[in-house]
Design a protein that fits this description.
- This protein has about 325 residues and is of the alpha/beta class.
- About 45% of the residues lie in helices and about 15% in strands.
- It has 15 helices and 10 strands.
- The chain has helices at about 25-30, 45-50, 50-55, 75-90, 105, 120-130, 150-160, 185-190, 205-215, 225-230, 235-240, 250-265, 270-285, 290-300, 305-320, and strands at about 1-5, 5, 10-15, 35-45, 65-70, 95-100, 135-145, 165-170, 195-200, 220-225.
- The strands form 2 sheets. An 8-stranded parallel beta sheet has the order 3-10-9-8-7-6-5-4.
- Helix 7 links the parallel strand 7 and strand 8 (about 165-170).
- Helix 1 (about 25-30) packs antiparallel against helix 12 (about 250-265) and helix 12 (about 250-265) packs antiparallel against helix 13 (about 270-285).
- The longest helix has 17 residues, at about 305-320.
- The structure holds flavin mononucleotide (FMN).
- The site of flavin mononucleotide has 22 residues, from strand 4 and helix 10.
Length: about 325
């Protein structure tokens, strides 16, 4: 797949996810076969004001490249300035968030609330396009609410303003994550524009990714929640696509991915945040394993990263030696 002038190794993309797609996580999923990763949404205003904390989100390392930076905001000139700063910091792609339904974001006129205002969408995408030297994508939802299913109309505006691809999560903003993503809408958007369309939403199993591509003719797929539970999903989709047997992660795979995370987390954020993040990952990576409930109770009481990892190591050692 190619987006603008950026050639990707395959059609599988990791979704931007707040609180999750930090650098360690991005490196892990790139290693699993995702051909493109994104930062979580970054405040355009924070970047434009050069707020130290916001600028931290732009840090990257070669192992995760190519990296897209996703920005959110509501003012065209601020979005353009932010995109410029992201590119200067090394972004290989810029994505504009027009899908976030979270109150804190939409009340400022950003995220999914832009779907109510095609004129504003036009102004923002045009302003960013003028300044942005790397491929530009826009991530949208189906619309604000079912009475306003604007995805096709908005997609045309976005393409007209020079964006290089459209990413669509076909749920309405007022749905949050309830109900199901309506994949047929991805196909409708694909029919309306010439730029690549990336489908997103409810890819849970490897076969879902292939089904989405088959049913909608989308050019690529973006995976969010399933990749948090199962970062191996990218490798599994690639295996399935080639007709190869699909590898399920065994205990040693799970243990080694936790250790890899541990090593990457150390030094990339402060101890407290790293321990919190690690705890969240342990919940995912031990789900369904023997005695995981008891282990979870144990590690939920642990506060420091090192003790967390040694508790995890003991748990896995116990399982592996049976
Ligand atoms: C915890 C969480 C954080 C998210 N953060 C972002 C974000 O920062 N930017 C964005 O465009 N979408 C964000 N999303 C939406 C995902 O990118 C994706 O569109 C959504 O989860 C649907 O895909 P999935 O069914 O594969 O998870 C987030 C979703 C979740 C669950």
């Amino acid at each position: 797949m190619q987006i603008g002038n950026l050639k990707l190794e395959n059609k599988l993309i990791m979704a931007p996810m707040a609180g999750i797609t930090n650098m360690p996580f991005r490196i892990i999923v790139r290693g699993m076969g995702a051909s493109l990763v994104f930062t979580e949404m970054v405040s355009a205003m924070g970047l434009a004001l050069k707020a130290e904390k916001t600028l931290q989100y732009l840090k990257s390392v070669p192992a995760e490249k190519p990296l897209g930076v996703q920005i959110f905001g509501s003012e065209p000139d601020v979005m353009a300035r932010a995109a410029d700063i992201a590119v200067d910091a090394g972004a290989d792609m810029v994505d504009l968030n027009m899908g976030c339904p979270v109150k804190k974001v939409v009340k400022t006129g950003a995220g999914a609330s832009l779907l109510k205002d095609p004129k504003k969408v036009r102004q923002i995408v045009s302003s960013v396009r003028k300044i942005c030297q790397v491929p530009l994508t826009v991530k949208i939802r189906a619309g604000w609410s079912p009475e306003k299913a604007v995805a096709c109309e908005i997609a045309r505006v976005i393409e007209d303003c020079g964006a290089d691809a459209i990413i669509i999560h076909p749920r309405f903003a007022n749905q949050g994550y309830s109900g199901k993503a309506v994949w047929s809408l991805i196909g409708k958007v694909k029919d309306k524009v010439k730029v690549p369309v990336i489908g997103n939403g409810d890819i849970t199993f490897p076969s879902d990714a292939l089904n989405m591509m088959k049913l909608t003719s989308c050019d690529g797929v973006m995976i969010g929640r399933a990749a948090v539970r199962n970062p191996w999903i990218f490798r599994q989709i690639l295996q399935l696509e080639k007709g190869l047997p699909v590898d399920e992660p065994d205990l040693s795979d799970r243990r080694s991915i936790i250790m890899k995370h541990y090593n990457l987390l150390q030094g990339s954020m402060n101890e407290h945040r790293a321990a919190l993040f690690m705890r969240g990952l342990l919940i995912h990576y031990t789900k369904g394993l023997p005695d995981s409930g008891r282990f979870r109770e144990e590690f939920n009481k642990i506060k420091d990263l090192e003790s967390l990892v040694s508790a995890m190591d003991n748990y896995f050692r116990g399982l592996m030696t049976g």
